[in-house]
Amino acid sequence: MSASPYIYLDHNATTPVDPRVLEAMLPYFTEIYGNAASIDHDAGHMAQQAVEVAREQCRRILNARESKEIIFTSGATESDNIALFGVAERYADKGDHIITCVTEHKAVLDCCHRLEQMGKRVTYLPVDQYGIVDLDELRKAITLRTILISIMFANNEIGTIAPVKEIGTIAREHDVLFHTDAAQALGHVPVDVEEMNINILSFSAHKVYGPKGVGGLYVRRRNPRVKLAPVIYGGGHEIGLRSGTLNVPGIVGMGKAYEIAAAQMKSDAARFEVWTRKMLTEITDQLGSVHMNGHPVKRLPHNLNISIEGVESKSLVVQLKNVAISTGSACTSASVEPSHVISALGFSPERAHSAIRISVGRSNSPEDIKFAVTSIIQSAKRIQSLVV
Ligand SMILES: *Cc1c(COP(=O)(O)O)cnc(C)c1O
User: Fold this and answer.
1) Residue 263 in contact with residue 151, Cβ under 8 Å?
2) Is the CB of 204 under 6 A from ligand 1?
3) Is the CB of 207 under 6 A from ligand 1?
């Protein structure tokens, strides 16, 4: 049974829920429906226990010291908001300067724009042709007023993985907090908040075969102890940092999703890397002028972003009737502006206008990949012949 009339190659936008995740969630809708904060009775206590199991599953995939360092939220957008506004407010007496980079997700960039309106200062570091910030420029940007460095772990459009450990070391040397948006990375590539000197980390369940509308924030409690001001006030849930009744089924599903990811990350990644490489080789062989966007090796194994010369991505995506790929990130594809990420890499506007993102996942088979490659090549050739 397939609900989708097409081959889904947009796993960077969102993933289907893994059937094992759904199975783990189901009892928490109609059977174990207590409020996890109502621990005076069994119904609430059972919900609370399930939440703590999930918190431990999240702790494990992050290699955090304590599960208390995990706060549950509605997703990575909210987590990014808590990280940025939370640090800006709480550390206002220490400084007012934040460093981020131009290729961040809008969830970080829009917070930074708002913080600037509120009188804070933000440095937007440029990136090189692969989408990586220059570590010397990062060092130079740090001042005595700098309170936060926020650099994403892996980019949602081009898949480039940042030198996170090096950034974490620089942040630590300068006594500046380091936040990373790991929505695309956690569950797909190894993440270790201890080894990488990460202080605050955002994640989201629906990028790793968990449900939509649930995510989390890692907040370091020791060495250093990070303190954040809340963004949402209320009942004091989640150590006062994120009030609101917990989404128990969602949280249970997210924990399960990370447990599964931890177990099969390596084998999934190996399979996906073979597919994305194969697609690049075959499309390049057939079409000639194809440019890969993002870093050739420091990248998410399931992401491929390419620009085919003479083929506008909007036209290609419309032509591809049975294959779902993306012209940019889901959040920006409503606009006609080319992606801010590809534009930041320093190439021609044509290259940005022809960028397509293909992201594979567990829902795909080798046959899907073969079919998609053939369709993309055919459609691209048709568009090229029309243009010429
Ligand atoms: C998907 C994504 C987000 C937003 O996550 P939600 O859980 O959908 O709010 C933020 N940052 C990155 C890098 C993403 O890929």
Assistant:
1) no
2) yes
3) yes
CA of 99 to the centre of ligand 1 (A): 19
Q: Nearest Cα to 54, choosing from 201, 283, 248?
A: 248
User: Ligand 1 centroid to 255 CA: how many Å?
Assistant: 17
Shared-domain flag, residues 357 and 278: yes
What's the rounded Cα separation, in Å, for the pair 130 and 293?
7
pLDDT digits (tens, 9 = 90+) for 38-83: 989 999 999 999 999 999 999 999 999 999 999 999 999 999 999 9
Phi (first) and psi of residue 229, to 5 degrees: -80, 140
The residues that bridge with 177 in the sheet, in sequence order, are 148
Q: Which residue's CA is the closest to the ligand 1 atom numbered 2?
A: 183
Tally of domains within the chain: 2
The first and second tokens of residue 283, run together, are 């499309």
Same domain assignment for residues 49 and 182: yes
Residue 2 lies in a domain: no
Q: Is residue 105 in contact with ligand 1, taking CB distance under 6 Å?
A: yes
- What average pLDDT does range 299-320 have in this prediction? 95
- State both tokens at 282: 């075959």
The verdict on the CB of residue 193 being under 6 Å from ligand 1 is no
For ligand 1, the distance from its centroid to the CA atom of residue 10, given in whole angstroms, is: 14
Q: What is the pLDDT of residue 78?
A: 98
For the annotated catalytic residues, the residue numbers are 331
Q: How many CB atoms lie within 10 A of CB 12?
A: 29
The tokens for 155 are 């980019």
pLDDT tens-digit readout, 231-261: 999 999 999 999 999 999 999 999 999 999 9
Q: CB burial class (10 A; 0-12, 13-18, 19+) of residue 224?
A: exposed
Residue 301, domain extent: 7-16+265-387
